[in-house]
Design goal:
40% helix; 5-stranded antiparallel sheet; 5 strands; NADH Oxidase
Length: 182
C-alpha cells in the first residue's frame, strides 16, 4: 500500500478480533508513533500497551473508577467489558511539560498525531483500529490508577486488531465544503 492510498482509504473499524499486532507489526506501530511533529523535541507522549491479562486489569480500573465516581449504572455495567473489544489497546498519554515556546495544546496535538500515526501503521499492515476517548479518558480515578500525574492527559485509547467485517466506508465529505482561499 502506498502512502496516498493509505491516506485516502484509512478508516476506523470498531469490530475487531484476534489476531492483534504481532511483535514485528507492533514494532512498526511504535516507530510510527515517534515520527510525528514535535515542537521543541519535547516528546510529549508516552504509551501503555494493554493486551492479554492487562485487558482484565484495565477493565477493573474502569469499573472501580465508574463506581467511585458514581457514574450511571449503564457505564458501571459495561466498564469491565470495554477493554475486551480488541486484542490490544494502546493508551496514549500526553505528559504536560512547562515550556516557554511549546504551549499545552501543541503538546496534546503532538500526542494526538502519534495516535493517528499508530492507527495508520496498523492499517498499512492489514490490521485495523479505532481511537476512542470518552469518560474513561477524562476520569481522575483512571488517571490515578494508571500512575499519571495530575497534568497528564489521556489522549485516547487505540484499539487494535483484525477487522471482522471487510467493508469500505463511503466518502462522507467533499473537500470544497471544508477548504476556502484567503
Amino acid at each position: 500500500m502506498d502512502a496516498i492510498e493509505l491516506l485516502l482509504t484509512r478508516q476506523s473499524d470498531s469490530n475487531l478480533s484476534f489476531p492483534g499486532p504481532n511483535p514485528a507489526q507492533l514494532e512498526i506501530i511504535k516507530k510510527a508513533a515517534l515520527k510525528v511533529p514535535d515542537h521543541g523535541g519535547l516528546t510529549p507522549f508516552k504509551f501503555i500497551i494493554v493486551e492479554e491479562r492487562g485487558r482484565e486489569k484495565l477493565g477493573e480500573i474502569y469499573y472501580q473508577a465508574a463506581v467511585k465516581e458514581q457514574q450511571e449504572q449503564r457505564v458501571i455495567d459495561r466498564a469491565r467489558q470495554l477493554p475486551e473489544r480488541a486484542p490490544m489497546l494502546i493508551i496514549a498519554i500526553s505528559p504536560y511539560q512547562e515550556h516557554p515556546k511549546v504551549p499545552r495544546i501543541e503538546q496534546i496535538q503532538s500526542a494526538g498525531c502519534s495516535v493517528f500515526a499508530m492507527q495508520q501503521a496498523a492499517f498499512a499492515q492489514g490490521l485495523s483500529g479505532v481511537w476512542r476517548t470518552g469518560y474513561f479518558a477524562q476520569s481522575p480515578e483512571v488517571k490515578k490508577q494508571l500512575g499519571l500525574d495530575g497534568k497528564d492527559e489521556i489522549v485516547g485509547y487505540l484499539y487494535l486488531g483484525t477487522p471482522t467485517v471487510q467493508c469500505t466506508k463511503p466518502t462522507r465529505h467533499k473537500p470544497e465544503d471544508f477548504f476556502s482561499s484567503l
